[in-house]
Amino acid sequence: MLFRTIGFVGALAAATRAVETKPSIIYILTDDQDVHMQSLDYMPLLKKYIADEGTTYERHYCTTAICCPARVSIFTGKLSHNTNVTDVVAPYGGYPQFIDQSLNSNYLPIWLQDAGYNTYYASRLFIALMTTNYDNPHAAGWTSLDFLIDPFTHSCWNATWQRDMDPPVSREGTYNTDDLANKTASFFFVGTAPVAPHDEVVMNPITFNGSIFSPDDPVIRPQITSPKPAERHAGMFTDLKMLSISNVILPTILWPSGVHWVSRLPQLNQTIDEMAEQIIQELETLDIADNTYVIYSTDNGFHVSQNRLQPGNTCIPKGATTDMVTSHTDLAPTVFMMAGIEPKSDFDGVTIPLTEGEIGEGTRAEHLGIEYWGLSIVSSLHNKSSVGNTYKGIRVQSKDYNMYYSVHCTNEHELYDMTVDLFQINNLLPSGTNGTGMPVTTYDNSTASIIGQPLVKVSRLDAIMMVIKSCKGETWINPWGVLHPEGGYDDFYMKSIEQTSVSYSICANGYLVDAEGPQDSIIYQEANWSALI
């Protein structure tokens, strides 16, 4: 498969050389790959051909850590509360919600085609793109496509593919990631999205009723099982142990039920590692590597984003790392910059600095908003889920501090100093008598502190979360400028949080404005929030 993927590139390389007015872009998007379990340490080819030749963004985050919302943010440059795709399946997510929100005519491949690019995609696009709805309508914007189709997307050895306008075809007996295929011509954008290292999801085709999940029916409900590597990688890393957390004792219930197959995850990444090598080698053979960007990331969880372009005054630094804060919403604006397209005014993200000069001179925001709706699903043989997992969070991160603040739909509050508490063990906002966290009105009386500051300063975090939880565009990029033009307003923030703070009325499984508490922030100088948007 990997040779076929590159073979299609080679078959039309002459056309590429003829119109090298714009760079080509290749985006490798993995599925649920981690960083904190050191998965990249077991991908030497990725390190050799991409990481060592490009720049690693060590603080690149996903703002909604579940597959479909994360991918929609990548393709639209928008936060999930602005796409209203907040889950993996209907009624709040998946391919049907992507269509219902009119995004099929307003996302990255459409915009790139308008700029003259040929666009190609292989493997998984969104969950709930199924054998029953793949043509209702077809995903728009792709010069050619080859999609993995549910209910067999995550079947390691029984995947179903759907190419262009053709009906789906089963590839039983062929390893899923090995079966990728791409075509490309002229200057191009290629998205290749292997499902590894995602768990295997097994569907029963006899009882499958067109719904990708039916959690209340154990007969229809899919079984999430141990993922399987390609046969040639099955004997690798057999003595690997899960990364230990030193000096931390966690209750047994917190350890993942799937821990017995954690050691297999590096095996699953080997086909991706081989694919990365062959992509770069073929680009170099065709003499088009110097005009091609390569981006590597995963869709949700902990992320790494890497880029590569020709040497020279405008090159991406070789073997470099940067700790600037970036997110998935920044990827579409960055692709626009690569392609020489003017950014859209409604992007929630901003361009990621790429060259050494840009990285050195760039000033990035320190904040990152986090949002999640719906069930908490455990990857295990029993496929259990629990309700009440909707929350908002905010990371504020720099060279000097690293804080995380969140409000759950139960109105519990959490605050962590992640400089000293990376695994979020010590909540600095312990539960009050009502079990919903310390009341915000008691912050100014607390003896607790964070980064040497009194807890009352949390009111600033709540105020900025109040803005970004429902904002868009420039307001997301610079929320402090919305709240006030200058600093030094602790009294204002404390009064603000006493009057209107982040809270929920119910634990909804999707983005329902009525469930998400107050929407209008208190603005300094008594400006009305609604007048600013």
UniProtKB/TrEMBL annotation:
Belongs to the sulfatase family. Residues 1-18 form the signal peptide. The lineage of its organism: Eukaryota, Fungi, Dikarya, Ascomycota, Pezizomycotina. The keyword Ribonucleoprotein does not apply. Residues 23-320 form the Sulfatase N-terminal domain. Keywords: Glycoprotein, Hydrolase, Signal. One of its GO terms (molecular function) is glycosaminoglycan binding. This is Arylsulfatase. It holds the Pfam family Sulfatase. The keyword Hydrolase applies.
